[in-house]
């Protein structure tokens, strides 16, 4: 009797536990890597082609340059004033459905792209509205006390004004330099600082790409990679460019944890100016390798219209989001400018 | 009348603590819920099962954490893949969902399937070698039946062939074989529990308290069978002849449950593609299980039992292996496996105790060379044959 009872209990436990899934009526579909169309009665988990719901807009960030509030000193020097506010309590959707505590300069990762001309006086009014100490450390040439390392800016409204002459010419990163440094950088406290030569550069369609990643499970290994924060974004929102138009990309590698990152362009080669400090390109290639905070300027133009990939040729990174598309159109064909 | 009101009073006094318990729980979930808000509840999911279909990988996930979760992403070998989740991506506590990942996998290669939650936490499960998920058809059921027969029925029947031999030997040697049976059984019981712990460690979330589940079910099974066996043997005023047969039956049932567990393990291993079932493995199980026939043969050796009854005993002990492979192969869940293994362990310990009691009743003491050495040799034999498995 008890044997039967225990068997019954055993069977009923095992039958009740695996909850039976109930079929829903509407079907959703998604497309796989190989182009297969899959139907499901449930939800689609697809950061690769999901029309993004995230707050940060990489399309806007791509060509967004901040020149500051411009004024002129008595000596005729251009002064550029910027206000940068640091915060560390935001939860942002950094990939469809994945929420992460980002630490931000002016509310976004990366922070605003700061742009000045060589010799300008740059004044950064820095306010720390975070709950931890933060600073701004610019790569470039400046006085020791403007380096943002020992002048810790306290939480809850601490302030500091960084003041220096823009230089040298090129593309540089800025980032928080408070210990533990890896934590402050990997949470998102970084951005791009561009110094234009006085004589300017040839006219071009210019864009900024910060190569970054997020370690969302804190195992000192990135779970997501991207150009400009959102994985796969430029794959489902291709960057529209024109044939025979000079393209200039300011590229900065801010990936933590992995020693190197790289950038490979399809169907084309580009002139590369490491750090952007020289006017003569160092190489003509379709592949560059970048270590931490290594950066440079890429220049190229497409002769043929169509879709061209660009991605990390460290394929692990591209399969975790660092991949995108250029949609190249003939000027007369393109409807949207 | 008076008696009835006192009865009501008894019932009410028994219920009062429950009422207060309910009030406390309601308070803690309702107005008092802020009192206990300290510490951080971490989400947790367990990937319970991974199956490989035609260019699609299926992962069964269960929310085994203290809070509801949302599934955000799936990956294969830590590379993000588009996927679907059915019925939907929100999982309440203990709810399961099926994640379908279209992926053209390669046979026999290892894969790690990862699932990322909405807060970025990633959980994964490693599969040693991908093998096509079995299709539940008659061919496979037949294949399992053959395995079950080789592993369960045939070895037990071969073991029973020792019956005439045991019939002929003297009392001391007979006691030795009974004690040997005890050794075999104790080993099998420990073996079943150990296997349960292994399953619990590999496939069951910590939240299910696998260890305590095994202990509880084993003890329940032991007590339940012990109680019912006592009732059975005392009530029917058994003759000396029929008591050994009752013990033989109990052993057969215990071993049957054990073989059910063994079948579950084999079926599940095939079903999950964890092992290629080699001839060697089958031979190992068969050798190991031959000793089980001996365990049934010993107590019934001194009685005149009809051949038909002996065969039935053999079937009771051996046939559940087939049932086990079916359940394990077609409806595997770690929970089922642990429950059956634990029932088997309890049953086996109960039989071992009954034989020891029986030996004590006829000998009045257990510490004697034949019995002690019997138990020891029994366990040794089992250990040596277990290496083959």
Strand content of chain B: 5-15%
C-alpha Rg of chain B (nearest Å): 26 Å
Terminal CA distance of chain B reads 68 Å
CATH architecture of the largest domain in chain A: Sandwich
Helix and strand sequence of chain A:
HEEEHEEEEEEEEHEEEHEEEEEEEEHE
CATH superfamily of the largest domain in chain A: Cupredoxins -  blue copper proteins
CATH top-level class of the largest domain in chain A: Mainly Beta
Average pLDDT reading of chain B:
81
Measured on Cα atoms, how large is the radius of gyration of chain A? Answer: 24 Å
Describe the largest sheet of chain B.
Answer: 5 strands, antiparallel
Ranges of chain A with pLDDT <50 over ≥5 residues?
A: 14-25
Q: Biggest β-sheet of chain A: count, sense, barrel?
A: 6 strands, mixed
Mean pLDDT of chain A: 90
Task: Report on the architecture of this protein.
The complex is a heterodimer of chains A (337) and B (389). Chain A has 337 residues and is mostly beta strands. Chain A has five helices and 23 strands. Chain A folds into two domains: 141 residues, Immunoglobulin-like (Sandwich); 137 residues, Immunoglobulin-like (Sandwich), CATH 2.60.40. In chain A, the strands form five sheets. Chain A has a six-stranded mixed β-sheet with strand order 14-13-16-21-18-19, with no helix packed on it. In chain A, strands 4, 5, 6, 8 and 10 form a five-stranded mixed β-sheet that branches. The radius of gyration of chain A is 24 Å and the shape is globular. With 389 residues, chain B is of the alpha+beta class. Chain B has two domains: 83 residues, Sandwich (Immunoglobulin-like); 250 residues. In chain B, 62% of the residues lie in helices and 14% in strands. Chain B contains eleven helices and nine strands. In chain B, the strands form two sheets. In chain B, strands 3, 4, 6, 8 and 9 form a five-stranded antiparallel β-sheet that branches. In chain B, strands 1-2-7-5 form a four-stranded antiparallel β-sheet, with no helix packed on it. The longest helix of chain B has 33 residues. Chains A and B meet through helix 1, strand 1, strand 3 and strand 6 of A and strand 3, strand 4, strand 5, strand 7 and helix 5 of B.
């Amino acid at each position: 009797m008890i044997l039967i009872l225990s068997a019954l209990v055993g069977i009923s436990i095992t039958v009740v536990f695996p909850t039976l899934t109930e079929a829903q009526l509407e079907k959703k579909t998604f497309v796989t890597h190989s182009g297969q169309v899959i139907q499901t009665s449930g939800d689609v988990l697809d950061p690769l082609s999901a029309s993004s719901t995230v707050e940060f807009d990489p399309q806007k960030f791509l060509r967004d340059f901040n020149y500051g509030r411009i004024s002129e000193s008595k000596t005729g020097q251009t002064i550029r004033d910027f206000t940068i506010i640091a915060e560390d309590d935001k939860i942002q959707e950094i990939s469809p459905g994945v929420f992460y505590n980002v630490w931000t300069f002016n509310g976004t990762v990366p922070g605003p792209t700061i742009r000045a001309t060589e010799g300008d006086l740059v004044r950064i009014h820095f306010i720390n509205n975070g709950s931890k100490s933060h600073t701004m450390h610019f790569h470039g040439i400046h006085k020791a006390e403007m380096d943002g390392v020992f002048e810790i800016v306290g939480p809850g409204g601490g302030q500091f004004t960084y003041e220096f002459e823009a230089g040298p010419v090129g593309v540089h990163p800025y980032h928080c330099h408070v210990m533990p440094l890896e934590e402050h950088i990997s949470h998102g406290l970084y951005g791009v600082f561009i110094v234009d030569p006085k004589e300017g550069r040839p006219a071009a369609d210019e864009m900024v790409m910060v190569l970054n990643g997020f370690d969302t499970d804190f195992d000192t290994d990135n779970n997501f990679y991207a150009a400009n924060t959102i994985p796969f974004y430029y794959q489902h929102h291709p960057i529209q460019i024109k044939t025979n138009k000079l393209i200039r990309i300011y590229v900065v590698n801010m990936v933590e944890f992995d020693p190197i990152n790289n950038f490979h362009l399809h169907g084309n080669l580009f002139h590369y100016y490491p750090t952007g400090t020289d006017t003569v390109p160092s190489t003509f290639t379709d592949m560059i390798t970048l270590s931490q905070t290594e950066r440079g300027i890429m220049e190229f133009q497409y002769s043929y219209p169509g879709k061209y990939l660009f991605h990390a040729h460290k394929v692990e990174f591209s399969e975790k989001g660092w991949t995108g598309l250029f949609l190249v159109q003939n000027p007369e064909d393109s409807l949207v400018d | 009348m008076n008696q009835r009101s006192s009865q009501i009073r008894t019932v009410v006094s028994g219920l009062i603590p429950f009422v207060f318990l309910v009030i406390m729980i309601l308070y803690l979930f309702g107005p008092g819920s802020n009192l206990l808000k300290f510490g951080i509840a971490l989400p947790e999911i367990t990937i319970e099962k991974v199956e490989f279909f035609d260019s699609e990988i299926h992962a069964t996930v269960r929310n085994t954490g203290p809070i509801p979760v949302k599934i955000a992403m799936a990956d294969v070998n830590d590379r993000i893949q588009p996927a679907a989740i059915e019925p939907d991506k929100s999982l309440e506590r203990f709810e399961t969902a099926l994640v379908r990942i279209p992926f053209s996998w390669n046979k026999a290669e290892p894969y790690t399937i990862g699932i990322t939650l909405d807060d970025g936490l990633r959980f994964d499960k490693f599969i040693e070698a991908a093998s096509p998920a079995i299709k539940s058809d008659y061919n496979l059921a037949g294949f399992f039946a053959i395995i079950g027969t080789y592993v369960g029925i045939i070895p037990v029947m071969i073991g029973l062939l020792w019956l005439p031999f045991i019939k002929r030997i003297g009392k001391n040697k007979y006691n030795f074989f009974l004690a040997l049976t005890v050794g075999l059984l104790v080993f099998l019981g420990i073996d079943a529990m150990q296997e349960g712990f292994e399953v619990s460690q590999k496939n069951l979330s910590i939240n299910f308290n696998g260890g305590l589940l095994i202990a509880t079910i084993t003890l329940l099974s032991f007590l339940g069978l012990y109680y019912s066996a006592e009732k059975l043997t005392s009530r029917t005023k058994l003759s000396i002849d029929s008591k050994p047969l009752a013990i033989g039956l109990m052993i057969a049932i215990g071993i049957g449950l054990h073989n059910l567990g063994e079948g579950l393990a084999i079926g599940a291993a095939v079903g999950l593609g964890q092992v290629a079932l080699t001839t060697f493995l089958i031979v190992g199980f068969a050798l190991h299980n031959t000793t089980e026939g001996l365990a049934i043969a010993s107590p019934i050796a001194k009685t005149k039992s009809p051949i038909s009854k002996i065969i039935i005993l053999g079937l009771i002990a051996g046939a559940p292996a087939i049932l086990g492979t079916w359940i394990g192969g077609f409806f595997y869940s770690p929970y089922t496996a642990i429950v059956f293994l634990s029932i088997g362990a309890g049953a086996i310990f109960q039989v071992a105790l009954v034989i020891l009691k029986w030996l004590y009743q006829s000998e009045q003491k257990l510490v004697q060379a034949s019995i002690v050495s019997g138990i020891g040799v029994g366990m040794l034999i089992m250990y040596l044959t277990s290496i083959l498995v």
